[in-house]
Amino acid sequence: MGKVLRSEFLKLRKSAIWLLIFVSPALSFLVGVGESVEDAPHKWELAITYMAFIHALLFLPLLTGVFSAFVCRYEHIGGGWKQLLAMPVSRGNVYIAKFLLVLGLIAITQLLFASGLILAGQLKGFEEAIPWKMIAVSLLGGWIACLPLAALQIYVSVAWSSFAAPLAINVIFTLPNMLIVNSEKFGPFYPWAQPFLAMVPTGQDGFGAMNVTMETLLLVIFGSFILFFLSGFTYFQRKEI
Amino acid sequence: MNELIIETNQLTKKFSKRYAVENIDLKIKKGEIYGFLGPNGAGKTTTIRMLLGLAKPTKGSIHIFGKDMKREKLNVLKRVGSLVEYPSYYGHLNAYENLDALRILLDAPKSRINEVLSIVRLSNEAKRPVKGFSLGMKQRLGIAAALLGNPELLILDEPTNGLDPSGILEIRELIKSMPKEHGITILVSSHLLSEMDQMATQVGIISKGKMIFQDSIEALRQRAQSKIAIKVDQTEQAWRMLLSKGRQAEMDNNQIYLPHTSDEEISTVIGDLVHDHFSVYRVQEEKKSLEDIFLELTGGEGSL
């Protein structure tokens, strides 16, 4: 497993993906700086909510798709799959390694997002202390909420040799997020909405699916993650290269 | 030397209703250069994909190094180097990094990268991104990748595809040298018979998914038996005369053909012809080329 990860990392390290991880944190940072929270009592909560509108509602699901498609792309275009799978490596390890890379990239994006948040808060001179715990819960929640989506996207990306098709699907399903997070019924079950629901701090004044408890959300997330991951994993085991 | 490196038994691959490969029994001995021949679309690549575990056989078994591919795939693949169909590469990496990504998986030492690069003469291009490589260079990089793990068995699918004549020669010499120097067994596929003629020791010919010939290259050459063609002025009468004397003559193309016989026989036939006042214009030996045999075996649909 270690060998496969090292090899995958080598392939990824030299690619252009690193530019993309800055996009969302940078834009969220601008939102964080631009939004007016002067009179609000919970400035950090408010800032993170505003920033999450951009980051978690839109970019995080999109990036999850891009990352997944990307780690498969260089295998598809150069005929890498057949060379890679004719090596003494198990298909399972290859699939898991690709998945871990995606999770790693999302994790880095989340950390950058946090830096953006803290920087924005400092710039605007929030007098409250930095709520580390809330930030950590939000980041980790967002990251975990990306699991089902990442599993789904990597499945699609492995199956289709096209780079654009999985992304197009991803965009189509990301766009209705705005509406779906308002629905208490469907929101928690929609993989593209889960990152936002998990990242926004839950409070009294939530709306729609945001009133769903964290426990329920996590249960749904892990359930669907296992389902999607195992489907993709089995598919890849049987795939004819 | 009778140890079988590759042995398949009734290997079959069916795509929906069409048989891509049907009941193939490959038998490849240690140290051989096995030429796997067939027209395009005959099932060569499909067979090779199954050998490498990239595709699952519909039926039949594969043993490599005497091990069942179904159960010991990874142990087998450790000792196999391969190049399937067209070369695989990561365009955003340079040649060295391409090989490094594979070397890690094979647990080979770093020094091996420069070794294989120099074998395929890419040492000077090692630091260039592979997306700028010509097809021939990518092909050589693919061969370098196949050699990376010091394999005991090399499976090369159309390795000279896209190479220029000097590149073809180079690769051919490389392939020929390997069994001698390192005791490597090689399975090399091609749709070009002439290429196989110059390097293979064993030949398997596949057509429409079926193995139609499997033997040594000499056995194939022996099929190329020559005929004696005789050109005379009145072909038909001469032919009837020879038939009446009990000769196995055939008439075709306004010429008389005799099966290959001894010099004395020929001289008797000529004597008879001259005696009956036929003018003999030409007597020549006509050899069937390997191409002819190949076309004959594949039913004429093979493009060479």
UniProtKB/TrEMBL annotation, chain B:
Species lineage: Bacteria, Bacillati, Bacillota, Bacilli, Bacillales
GO molecular function term, any single one: ATP hydrolysis activity
Family: Belongs to the ABC transporter superfamily.
Keyword terms of this UniProt record: ATP-binding, Nucleotide-binding, Transport
A Pfam cross-reference name: ABC_tran
UniProt name for this protein: ABC transporter ATP-binding protein
Domain ABC transporter stretches: 6-233
UniProt xrefs under PANTHER family: ABC TRANSPORTER, ATP-BINDING PROTEIN
SMART domains: AAA
